[in-house]
Specification:
The complex is a heterodimer of chains A (about 300) and B (about 400).
Chain A lengths: L1 H12 L12 H20 L15 H4 L53 E6 L5 H6 L7 E6 L2 H17 L9 E5 L2 H8 L5 E7 L17 H10 E11 L2 H13 L3 E3 L2 H6 L1 H9 L1 H8 L5 E7 L4
Parallel strand pairs in A: 1-2, 1-4, 2-3, 4-5
Antiparallel strand pairs in A: 5-7, 6-7
Helix pairs in contact in A: 2-5, 10-11
Chain B lengths: L6 E4 L5 E6 L2 E6 L5 E6 L6 H17 L23 E6 L5 E6 L4 E7 L10 E8 L4 E6 L5 E6 L3 E6 L2 H5 L10 E2 L4 E7 L2 E6 L4 E5 L6 E4 L7 E7 L2 E9 L3 E6 L4 E7 L1 H4 L25 E7 L2 E6 L4 E6 L8 E6 L4 E7 L2 E6 L7 E5 L5 E2 L1 H10 L26
Antiparallel strand pairs in B: 1-2, 2-3, 3-4, 5-6, 6-7, 7-8, 9-10, 10-11, 11-12, 13-14, 14-15, 15-16, 17-18, 18-19, 19-20, 21-22, 22-23, 23-24, 25-26, 26-27, 27-28
Classes of the chains: A alpha/beta (about 300), B mainly beta (about 400).
């Protein structure tokens, strides 16, 4: 794997003929070509209605096939504290959400109806398994994944395009999309106060080293931001296979004054708990390895 | 050579001038320019390195039987960046009995008791409390009744500290638990009635309830670059003024979130730009003429807004009679770049980048003319902080480095 990376780096320093560089392995060449083709299709298809007749010639076999995950691999970690060249809106009202959910554009106004706002967010959505499984369960609700890793985001975008193309004419999977974004820093730039009904934190990075606990996705201070964007009654869903992280998340949510734990029965009966337990890539991996899954869900309560 | 004042602060009636110069706080009388008190940060340059050595020894002892070999203090080699033990932030308590400063030497908040009438020069400033924090404090704010202090650090956390007299005399560790946090470096924090307003490097201005700091009330969105200055309007504390890396200043009603006025500075700043405002080579445009300017200080006084653009030889003054419009009243021009400004009563105090005798000036805030020139010269000539080589001089301008450069 590391030799692939080295070759990949070398090819970046070469001229435009790099794809013919004899030192590139066949697998690397295949990956680079695949990524290039996917990027070109993505540009055309990711912000438009798949049903548009003018796009028919763009919908070829490559588009309707689900993307191949192995071509999107990258190192697992991405530092949320760095100044990535990530785009983020100056404020929520600067976001053009119609580009992400074009099927929901009102024919009259040409924009999204005012009551159509993102209401479910998957923070750190990974390869998008939860988004895909939530989509048919909440077909009228706009759902957004936020992911900081560029290749993983590209994979999810390609997957959504493929699913929309496979279900052309039905409107399926039009209610999900993904954004490459740093939720730790810029969540309030994307969402208004009290906008969200559900927030998912599925198998977040445990950051085992003590000095990295500031980088964990659930902290006292980040919870205040989640309470800001969640409406009263909205729910935070957490799931992890790391017991220490699970206990950390529980203790921080328990001590935050704006959250209360759902009862055991409520958790059991919530269909989102079932969905999130089985739909993510990490969830499936844990299942295959017969590991444990720890779940904790909390409701946003009124300001005290 | 005289070292320029990095930070200045006048007391309420303007009888005293506090100046942070390298690792020294000097107090001058504005009546005659005399130096009446001085505090030198006693923490030495290698404090951080020694602390690391001590921690290393402790770790070795815990896992080694018998005596341990003492690890050397790494001596910075040739070409290592110099260490500057700045005294950043200077705030007077409401009763002006204490000066609160932050130090880079040990990342501490130091509370200094002022006894300026004491006949013994050495006893006029006494350290009441010194609390070292895990991360460098970037900004502090004192509650109006002098009961509490909030400290904002470069990691994005805000801590709440008691200023109760009994508390201060105890040997207290800095608080471990933050009351609120951002994820990026905090640049400012201010107490505003029952709230705390914070700003960060990622263009955020956040309004949080206090003491229920787990409730975020609102964000004031509108800046495109870091926010470095936050000021409340003294005659209407619902009004907040913000500025930083943008070429504009925003004026808000922070209690409602409304942007009241957007003060475009472009045309006023353009004539003040020099080569020192050129963007670094790596971020230049094709023509190599890209410039960047930053608001480094805002003062609101007597229905006027005083704006300092970093490393310019000018102070911009705007008419602040209303929030509908802020016309330019005057531009004070100086002989050398302005490092910092402060205001008391009807005097504007200006610290300049000068190395001989003209490093300080006083202007009248109504006529905008220089006044008390002999006092100004006395103050600067009475400063005891000097340096001989350029390596000893502390950098004077820090706001520009808050600008983000894209990584990947």
């Amino acid at each position: 794997m590391s030799s692939d990376i080295q070759e990949s780096k070398k090819s970046k320093r070469s001229n435009t003929a790099s794809l013919d560089d004899i030192y590139i392995s066949e697998e690397t060449r295949k990956r680079l070509l695949y990524r290039k083709e996917k990027e070109q299709k993505r540009k055309v298809l990711k912000h438009v209605r798949i049903d548009d007749k003018e796009l028919e010639k763009e919908i070829d076999k490559g588009v309707t096939e689900l993307p191949k995950k192995r071509f999107y691999r990258q190192r697992a970690h991405s530092n949320p504290f760095s100044d990535h060249q990530l785009e983020y809106p100056k404020s929520p009202r600067h976001m053009d959400w119609a580009r992400f959910y074009p099927d929901f554009i009102s024919k009259d106004s040409g924009t999204l109806p005012t009551d159509k706002r993102v209401e479910i967010a998957d923070i750190g959505c990974g390869f998008g398994g939860l988004l895909v499984d939530l989509s048919p369960e909440f077909p009228e609700t706009l759902i957004l994944g936020m992911e900081i890793r560029v290749q993983v985001t590209n994979y999810v975008e390609d997957k959504i395009i493929a699913l929309r193309a496979q279900h052309k004419g039905t409107g399926k999977y039009s209610n999900i999309n993904v954004i490459r974004g740093n939720a730790m820093k810029f969540l309030p730039n994307f969402f208004e106060k009290s906008q969200l009904k559900k927030m998912f934190f599925c198998f977040p990075d445990p950051h085992f080293k003590q000095r990295k606990h500031k980088a964990r996705i659930i902290t006292n201070t980040l919870l205040s931001e989640y309470a800001y964007v969640l409406r009263v009654g909205g729910i935070i869903y957490t799931i992890s296979d790391v017991l220490d992280l699970h206990e950390w998340m529980k203790s921080h949510l328990n001590e935050h004054p704006l959250f209360e734990r759902l009862t055991e029965l409520e958790e059991k009966e919530d269909k989102c708990v079932q969905i999130m337990t089985h739909s993510t890539e990490e969830g499936k991996k844990v299942e295959r390895n017969k590991g444990s899954k720890f779940i904790a869900c909390y409701r946003r309560i009124p300001d005290l | 050579m005289k070292h320029p004042f990095q930070l200045i602060l006048a007391n309420r009636e303007g009888s005293l001038l506090f100046a942070s110069t390298k690792n020294v706080v000097q107090v001058f009388s504005t009546e005659n320019g005399q130096l009446i008190a001085k505090w030198i940060d006693p923490i030495d340059t290698f404090h951080t390195l020694k602390k690391q050595q001590k921690e290393k020894i402790q770790a070795l002892k815990e896992k080694t039987e018998g005596p341990v070999k003492i690890p050397k203090i790494p001596v910075p080699g040739k070409g290592a960046p110099p260490i500057f033990n700045y005294i950043r932030n200077m705030h007077l308590t409401g009763d002006e009995s204490k000066l609160i400063v932050t130090t880079d030497s040990d990342k501490a908040v130091v509370i200094l008791e002022l006894n300026l009438d004491n006949s013994d020069f050495e006893s006029r400033i006494v350290v009441l409390s010194r609390q070292a924090f895990a991360k460098r404090p970037c900004a502090i704010s004192i509650k109006e009744d002098d009961s509490r202090l909030v400290v904002a650090d470069k990691f994005g956390d805000v801590y709440d500290v008691s200023l109760d007299k009994n508390f201060l005399t105890l040997e207290q560790q800095a608080p471990k638990k933050s009351i609120l946090g951002h994820v990026s470096m905090l640049t400012n924090v201010i107490f505003a009635k029952n709230h705390i307003i914070t700003s960060d490097r990622d263009e955020h201005i956040r309004v949080t309830q206090y003491p229920k700091t787990y409730i975020i009330e609102r964000y004031l969105f509108g800046h495109s670059q870091f926010v470095s200055c936050l000021k409340l309007c003294p005659w209407n504390e619902d009004i907040l003024i913000s500025g930083g890396g943008d070429d504009f200043i925003n004026i808000w009603n922070w209690t409602t979130g409304d942007l009241l006025f957007h003060l475009d500075l472009t045309s006023y700043v353009q004539p003040l730009i020099t080569d020192r405002h050129l963007a670094p080579m790596r971020f230049q445009n094709k023509e190599g003429n890209l410039t960047e300017t930053n608001v480094s200080e805002l003062l609101v006084h007597d229905h006027k807004l005083f704006v300092l653009i970093e490393c310019t030889s000018a102070v911009l003054i705007f008419d602040f009679q209303s929030t509908d419009n802020l016309p330019l009243l005057h531009v004070i021009k100086t002989q050398s770049p302005v490092v910092h400004i402060s205001i008391a009563l009807s005097k504007l105090y200006v610290a300049l980048e000068d190395y001989t005798i003209d490093g300080f000036e006083i202007f009248d805030t109504n006529t905008f003319q220089p006044v008390l020139e002999d006092v100004s010269k006395n103050i600067y000539s009475n400063s005891t902080v000097e340096f001989e080589s350029t390596t000893e001089q502390y950098p004077l301008y820090h706001v520009a480095q808050l600008r983000k450069r894209g990584e990947h």
